[in-house]
Write a structure and sequence with these properties.
This protein is mainly α. It has one domain: bsu32300-like (Four Helix Bundle (Hemerythrin (Met), subunit A)), CATH 1.20.120. Helices cover about 80% and strands about 0% of the residues. The protein has seven helices and no strands. Helix 1 runs antiparallel to helix 3 and helix 3 runs parallel beside helix 7. It starts with a helix and ends with a helix.
């Protein structure tokens, strides 16, 4: 299968989304105070977003033969060339920003904001993953 690696990554994301849906914190106080839960959720968000970025890079470099200069640059290139729509581009930028905050600014993360946007983050991860998979499946 030409896109087996992309499909494997998409399946991995779906498994993590299921975990995130099933383990949504009951309230913000628990999310802020339960370090184990917090770390598990932040890790699941991080790896979902990492896998999405990997998919974007694979699509850009293999399918459209674009040079990889960085994550944001790849998002911009695919958007400017009308390979992805603006809504996907904006969601990619925001998700990658969240991933960077989780990885690099963990001591200044605002857990309450993540809790308040939990469902939106899940929807965006699912939407972008579905859109990218359809992009390669439709072109196949």
């Amino acid at each position: 299968m030409k896109y087996e690696k992309i499909h494997r990554k998409a399946e991995y994301i779906l498994k993590k989304l299921k975990y995130l849906k099933n383990n949504r914190p009951e309230d913000v106080e628990r999310f802020e105070s339960d370090e184990t839960l917090q770390m598990a959720i932040l890790y699941a968000f991080q790896v979902c977003i990492d896998a999405i970025v990997d998919i974007v890079i694979l699509i850009g470099t293999r399918e459209y033969e674009k040079e990889y200069k960085g994550d944001y640059e790849m998002f911009e290139t695919l958007f400017e060339e009308r390979i992805i729509e603006e809504d996907v581009f904006e969601k990619l930028r925001k998700m990658n920003g969240l991933r960077n905050a989780i990885v690099h600014a963990y001591n200044s993360l605002v857990i309450e904001e993540i809790y308040e946007n939990y469902d939106k983050i899940l929807r965006d991860i699912g939407y972008v993953t579905d859109t990218l998979v359809k992009l390669i499946d439709d072109g196949d």
